[in-house]
Amino acid sequence: MKSKALSTSLQSLSKFPILGNLEVEINVEENELQLPVESLFKMAARINKKRAFLFVSKVLGKHLRVNPLDPLIISALLALRYHGTSEYEERMVRALLSDQTNQKKTAYEAFLSKKIELQQESIVVGFAETATALGHGVFDSFSNAQYIHTTREEILGDNPLLTFEEEHSHAVDQRCYSSHHFFENEKPIILVDDEMTTGKTTINIIRDIHAKYPRNQYGVLSILDWRSEEHIEAFRQLEQELNISIQTVSLLKGSFRCYGEPLLNEFTIEQGDKINSLPTIDRVDLSNVFTPSSFVPIKGSRASYVHESGRFGLDSKEALRVQHACKMAAEMITRQGTEDEVLCIGTGEFMYIPMKIATYMDGNVYYQSSTRSPIHCHNEESYAIQNKISYLNPEENNTTHFLYNIELNRFNHVILFFERSVEVKKMNTLLSYFHKQGVQRVTIVECSKDKEEESCSQG
């Protein structure tokens, strides 16, 4: 089960056993920042016929908990490499690899004090669900940019501007909602995802954008780039076909081959099926801190999404307002009292705001997010995913979410962030699971109120 660690230099083939007879063979070809590969990801098996495995990121704050500053530092490194600026790179890499929060914070704040000015104002697009915070972090790095992220959710009474497929995903449909003015221009578009394996998703969105809102320049940023020569050639052909330029940037580039059969049946029984004792519940209402958008989901609560998420578009002038709102939110949460060690948890695509709030909290604060992605769990230390809970997302009630690797007796206090208001009674499975894992206190944070509930409270 133990994988062979890869050094920072160029490598020959190295094998990562996963589960059963499933294994991935990796060859690192480019690693200019000399990042230890083992600091970036671990491997796991997916419950997915289309792709049998998953690179489980150790720097995104999705499936595995992280220091909340790490995803922002990774975003900054991608922005620096896209712009071709090396001034802060070495310091940011040292901060990423450090276990000292103060060092991370000092390095990142120094970088933000002199944001990168792009040659031309650009539109940054983060891919849902995993890269919504990563894309937002890239946007934060620029002084003259706009930001929007794609979504798998459907919006009541609105048609998406863009639609495309993420072919390897368990939920393939991706959409983008905003006003037409957001894309009716010739600004370069910078697409941000955590990894590229074939690049088909990127090609799909470029085709859709170009058919509706043509322009000349596209950038594609990813932490990992595993495209084969055949897939790289597909990008070259697309450039020629559409008469465009595509600049690709990654922190680690290489190739892989997968061997063995996909695992389509769960190895272990999921925890949290029975409702046992619940932890103490606190609630924090942030609806006066964040700005309600005009968009509500087709299914789920009547509460609107929040504007600051970037789901419907932001510009650089608004970035400071988002930062200020997250600082205020952190102060409101900490007034309720927090433990020395706290786990903050975002929900699905709603990753950036909870993560940013967590960076302003004192103490040993960790961050991760729930996900729609089903992954095999296996209780062995060298395997990426050792335990999990599945539950219905209380914001929607019809979508299953997963949380991974909540360690037994590690955290006494968990802070759950929701973009929209939720009913606690719909969370009993999740809350019971937390209690079973030794969590004594759960703070539920809501950033937008149900409109009916709000009018009742005002009446």
What is the mean predicted local confidence, pLDDT? 89
Instruction: Tell me the span between the first and last alpha carbons.
Output: 61 Å
Major beta-sheet overview? 8 strands, mixed
Please name the CATH topology of the domain at 280-302 and 316-458.
Rossmann fold
Global geometry? globular
The Cα radius of gyration reads: 21 Å
What is the number of helical segments per DSSP (H or I, 4+ residues)? 10
- Name the structural class: alpha/beta
Sequence of secondary-structure elements: EEEEHHHEHEEEEHEHEEEHEHEEEEHEH
Q: What percentage of the residues does DSSP assign to strands (E)?
A: 15-25%
Q: How many DSSP-defined strands?
A: 19
Low-confidence stretches: 1-11, 454-459
What is the highest CATH level, the class of the domain at 280-302 and 316-458? Answer: Alpha Beta
Strands of the widest sheet, in order across it, are: 1-2-11-10-9-5-6-13
What percent of the residues sit in helical stretches (DSSP H or I)? 25-40%
Specify the CATH architecture of the domain at 280-302 and 316-458. Answer: 3-Layer(aba) Sandwich
Protein name: Phosphoribosyltransferase family protein
Domain Orotate phosphoribosyltransferase-like: 40-254
GO molecular function, one term: glycosyltransferase activity
Pfam families: PRTase_2 (PF15609), TRSP (PF12500)
